[in-house]
Amino acid sequence: METGSSMLNVNLIYSQSATNSIEVSHEVLKQVVRFSCSGFALSQLDKSTPIKTNCYIFPSENEEEKQKIDTIAQYSKDFFTGDVSHFICQTPIHTQIPSSLFSPAIVDKTKQILVSDVGQYHFQSEYVAKYDLYNIVAWDKDSYNQIKISFPKAEIVSQATVLLKMLAGLQNDILIFFDTRQFVVLCKKDGKFMGMNTFQFGNEADCCYYLLAFLQKCYPNATENLSPLLCGNIAVASPLYQTLSRYFSQINILTNENMESYSLYCDILYI
Hints:
Distance between the termini: 28 Å
Structural class: alpha/beta
Number of strands: 14
Strand content: 25-35%
Helix content: 25-40%
Largest sheet: 6 strands, mixed
Number of helices: 7
Order of helices and strands: EEEEHEEHEEHEHEEEHEHEH
Shape: globular
Radius of gyration: 19 Å
């Protein structure tokens, strides 16, 4: 691919195409982009089956947001056969409100709690039926508007809401999605949603500190018997996984027998 002056020289870290034996139903084909702080993934799905998936990382997380979105738009033109149908956008700004408490007044108050300058953000209330709650998310307004311009037909959804849907379908009570120096942890107990949060971390010790403190709130005096399920940018050989293994007797990375590196882009399949 030729890159223009506005594009970043991203690195392809994973690519997978389905076997010819998979029958593709074009009526249900989804074309999905997932944008996170460290990179992006592009995937064509037939229902929940990935037909083709590419994962890329940015040369630096400090690149301007506009350049990142421009780059995703250019790569998408070559990857997809039509319009992007879904755009999963990561944001650390989110909170959950039970539907019984949900109201315009509550949403307004929530916005003021989440951010200091409400006018600089685009807010969205995303309903999660399994837990009967609304996930209130906030994106930088300029970035959100640029995504809308670059992908006018795409439904923009927060990764936090996608992860909530993932949690509801898993047997494990704890799901942790890792990105570069950032992770999202979600908890449930007896099928009931307990809470979720996003943390920034600088090293393995920071990660364990924030994670254990949050789990202690959700499961008082029971952290020894917990078995987190990990996904995202993490591998068994990574120092982070090795450090986490010291604190949990049972810890696993989300896998799928038919897919390599499933944990990297598993959230895409829950659109």
